[in-house]
């Protein structure tokens, strides 16, 4: 059923509320709402903007709710949490489809996560440009875990690198000898700094979330968060101000395409 969205202003509080009011004209018109948002009463632009705010900046769900309230939109933090679960994964999947070819040198590393008093390991691979290729959260960092991560990389990227750069963990050499025996392996002093630096945004969000609640929570969040970082953190230090603005406008337009909205139509 179609609806007409009206805005009601509370004169005393200065709050603008968005109301969905059905009318004969709206019911007679054919809905142009994307099927991705079928069953959700909020406009797709609001959903897209909330998901982007949560993953792009170090803010909590309640912070996003407050930011939207400042714009006159009342939405609960629980609704935003459900949106991030439902649409964040779908947006990230569509963004990964549009990703171009990566370099043929992969940097791999693992990050320790303390979850409910137990250790978990976030395996991460980046290319020469620092773009995250893929992640995998596992309980161990054994040779079996390394093989599982290698196979996920090969399946997702559909290419074989010419070199792997890792630290001196023995699991990498054991897994590479089985999965990618012809690929050269580099593990010299400080050669793996690029991927180790890529852990910093995850550490910052981990502190904001007061640690991950489970391995599944860590895997789900880091998968979407890494894709959003690839999209909206293009390496500001290497770009001039005009080039950076042009690039960001293009990437906002790409976000509108994958989210089937016009949330950034003015900026793009």
Q: What does the model show?
A:
The protein is of the alpha/beta class. Among the domains are: 1-32, no CATH class; 105-233, Nucleotidyltransferase, domain 5. 47% of the residues lie in helices and 18% in strands. The protein contains 10 helices and 7 strands. The protein has a 5-stranded mixed beta sheet, with helices on both faces. Strands 1-2 form a two-stranded antiparallel ribbon. Helix 6 links the parallel strand 6 and strand 7. Helix 2 (44-56) packs across helix 4 (77-97) and helix 4 crosses helix 10 (241-259). The longest helix has 21 residues, at 77-97. The radius of gyration is 22 Å and the shape is globular. The two termini are 31 Å apart.
Please give the number of β-strands. 7
**What is the rounded distance between the termini?**
31 Å
Provide the CATH topology of one domain.
Nucleotidyltransferase, domain 5
Across the major sheet, the strand order is 5-4-3-6-7
Mean pLDDT: 87
Listing every helix as H and every strand as E from the N terminus to the C terminus, the arrangement reads: EEHHHHEEEHEHEHHHH
The named CATH superfamily of one domain:
Ribonuclease H-like superfamily/Ribonuclease H
Proportion of residues in helical segments = 40-55%
Shape: globular
Radius of gyration: 22 Å
CATH architecture of one domain: 2-Layer Sandwich
What proportion of the residues form beta strands (DSSP E)? 15-25%
Number of helices, counting only DSSP H or I runs of 4 residues or more: 10
Major β-sheet annotation: 5 strands, mixed
Return residue spans where pLDDT drops below 50 for at least 5 consecutive residues.
Answer: 1-16, 18-29
* CATH class wording of one domain: Alpha Beta
Oligomeric state of shown chains:
single chain
Main structural class: alpha/beta
């Amino acid at each position: 059923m179609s609806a007409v969205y009206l805005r009601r202003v509370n004169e005393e509080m200065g709050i603008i509320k968005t109301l969905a009011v059905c009318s004969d004209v709206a019911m007679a018109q054919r809905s142009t709402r994307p099927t991705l948002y079928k069953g959700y009463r909020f406009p797709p632009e609001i959903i897209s903007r909330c998901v982007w705010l949560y993953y792009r900046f170090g803010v909590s769900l309640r912070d996003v709710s407050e930011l939207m309230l400042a714009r006159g939109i009342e939405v609960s933090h629980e609704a935003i949490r459900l949106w991030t679960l439902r649409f964040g994964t779908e947006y990230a999947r569509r963004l990964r489809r549009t990703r171009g070819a990566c370099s043929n040198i992969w940097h791999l590393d693992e990050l320790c996560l303390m979850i409910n008093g137990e250790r978990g390991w976030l395996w991460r691979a980046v290319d020469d440009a620092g773009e995250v290729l893929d992640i995998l959260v596992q309980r161990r960092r054994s040779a079996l875990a390394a093989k599982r991560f290698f196979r996920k990389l090969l399946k997702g990227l559909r290419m074989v690198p010419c070199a792997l750069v890792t630290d001196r963990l023995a699991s990498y050499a054991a897994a590479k000898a089985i999965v990618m025996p012809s690929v050269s392996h580099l593990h010299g002093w400080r050669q793996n700094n690029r991927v180790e630096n890529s852990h910093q945004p995850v550490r910052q969000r981990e502190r904001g979330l007061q640690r991950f609640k489970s391995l599944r929570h860590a895997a789900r969040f880091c998968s979407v968060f890494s894709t959003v970082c690839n999209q909206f953190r293009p390496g500001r230090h290497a770009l001039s101000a005009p080039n950076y603005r042009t690039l960001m406008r293009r990437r906002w337009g790409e976000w509108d395409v994958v989210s089937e909205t016009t949330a950034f139509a003015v900026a793009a």
